[in-house]
Design goal:
Layout: E1 4-5, E2 11-12, H1 24-28, E3 36-38, H2 41-50, E4 54-59, H3 64-74, H4 77-86, E5 88-93, H5 98-112, E6 119-123, E7 129-133, H6 147-160, H7 162-178, H8 191-203, H9 220-233, H10 236-251, E8 265-266, E9 274-275, E10 278-279, H11 280-297, H12 300-316, E11 327-328, E12 331-332, E13 335-336, H13 344-351, H14 353-363, H15 391-397, H16 402-420, E14 428-429, E15 432-433, H17 434-450, H18 454-470, E16 472-473, E17 476-482, E18 485-489, H19 492-509, H20 512-529, H21 562-577, H22 580-592, H23 594-599, H24 605-608, H25 612-615, E19 619-625, H26 630-641, E20 647-653, E21 674-679, E22 682-683, H27 690-697
Parallel strand pairs: 3-5, 4-5, 19-20
Antiparallel strand pairs: 1-2, 4-6, 6-7, 8-9, 10-11, 11-14, 12-13, 15-17, 16-17, 17-18, 19-21, 21-22
Helix pairs in contact: 4-6, 9-10, 9-11, 11-12, 11-17, 13-14, 15-16, 17-18, 17-19, 18-19, 19-20, 19-21, 21-22
Length: 705
Amino acid sequence: MPVIFNRKNKFMTKPNRLINETSPYLLQHAYNPVDWFPWSEEAFEKARLEDKPVFLSIGYSTCHWCHVMERESFEDEEVAALMKRVFISIKVDREERPDIDNIYMMVCQMMNGNGGWPLSIIMTPDRKPFFSGTYFPKENRYGRIGFKELIHGIESAWQNRREEILKSSEEITGYLSGIYEKGATVKIDGQILTKAFESFSTRFDSRYGGFGSAPKFPSPHNLLFLLRYWKRSGNAGALEIVIKTLTAMRMGGIYDQVGYGFHRYSTDKEWLVPHFEKMLYDQALLITAYSEAYQATGNPLFRRTVEETIDYLMRDMRFSAGAFYSGEDADSEGEEGKFYVWSNKEIIEAIGLKDASFVFRIFNTDEKGNFLEESTKQLNGNNILHLNKSYEELAVEFNMPLESLEEKITSLRSRLLNYREKRVRPFKDDKILTDWNSLVIAALSIAGRVFDNPEYIRSAETVYNFIRSEMSEGFLLKHSYRDGKKSAEGILDDYSFLIWGLIELYESTLKDSYILDAVKYCETVVQKFHDTEHGGFYFTSGEDSSLLMRTKEIYDGAIPSGNSVMFYNLIRLARISADPRYEEVAQRLLESFSDNISRAPTGSTFLLGSLDYLYGNSYEIIIAFKEKDEKTLDLLKELNRHYRPNKVIIPRKEDTAPPFEYLLNYLSDKGNPLVYVCKNYKCELPVRDKEKLRSILDVGNPHLF
């Protein structure tokens, strides 16, 4: 039996039940003195037999405040004994079981007006919640109830006010169930796009980029919407918001200036001081946003950001079989950000005094530092590296050719990275999630097209091959994989994100197999997740009887909702396959959530970005070819070079059976590629040269109409 040395300097030799789990987060708690159960029927049956409420604690391995609550309470013998006396305690990894988290996070938001992690739920043995919260300190502090006092309060209420508790739990559960009853259907038209833009415009921070004040989150799907709104309307203000925000994030401390990749969010309005965890989904969505912004602007900073972020993923986050790990912690050696910050002395040690002075000026460091130590809230000489000026401005300041400046910064970064690698790294959550890896498939496919980089596309194919071989049984997905074991049934996000990735992979490779697989996964979604009565899709398949209820999400949080992405998928599949049934399901989805979308359009921007297919000019572009020769590739480069988000590219390779019967009618010109363009339900005569193609697509116009 292994000996684990915990943070309180006690040797813990006896693990709890979590030792048998695969989740890194659960394993982190396997040597707590708390009598933890995983989510299981055994736990709820024990709660019924012992007549105890259930304490459900949900978190994830890279969550800073989850670590704090563990150190303060879950590693404390006194608190653990108190928990055992009063509760049956269950630990859940929200990333491994988003279906459980989705239900009880909704409870917390409903009861408290907000939510977050660690998520703390207290419920009856039949899974009905009656109390919710997030982080609790061990003792009462700063007006916040302490965890010990909370436990005593729950114990008293459970013994003396049971009837009141049970009534409350029934009311909460009843309210949740009623949320998904069909409400009023509101007409959704193109005006809602303007409404959403005006909301973003009002909240835009014109000085620092982003929206509102602190904290600031990347929310790439909002920027993707604004790019589409600019393309639709020609409103330069929308493009300005995107450029300012993406530039500020890339230059700020939220971006790892040494090792690349983005931290989770900025704790201040300047994008300087991040919450240092790095999540796979942020990297994927930001790669997509920067790639599309590069298409729209040609800004070399955006291209460099994409290439660097992909470098980070390939270097630090890639599993040997080709898929990608979930995230990296904010903490190392018990301190948030310790791995990432620099003193001037360390920079000198890493690269020498002469080059260090250059780094000081480039990345804005000084002796006092700019990062407050968490325990003392004082500056202690540690710096978060960031840029205040563009490379072009720095080249002028240093009187250097731009290319020479870039080469020097790249070289010094490499030396700093080598020095940093000697530090204790933050914990890496090495489980592999289908939904987040599917976002990577989409991102790498898009970046591969935009930057004409076949290596990115091959990497996307490798990720999909892993999902097909290790996380899919036929066309049924598993959600999580670690140490050769797959666990948890696939959720809507797994399917919808994978279908999105497959459509992008189809357009990037011209391989029919990917769109045929996308159709099969879509059939699974309609069969297992579709709300046939009200429209839209449930978060879960309904096959897990241990869950309190089935939820439906349209709100885009840190990542787009599964329903938003399915709306996008269904419309594109309708255009690619010429099968109107997909669009009918999409229309019902839109009607189902129309009231929510109308009241809060900025909460569903990924869906709004898809409305151009319905209410604006969209293109179906079929390229018929015999071989993927230079002429074919030249036409594809023309299609991919420019920002035109509301199009589908449909390859038709002769001498092979097409994936859809209608494509039999589209042929090349005696082996020379032909492009058939249909716009707004009208088709043009086929063209064979890129100049004519460009004129049909109106590439010179700043917007579509």
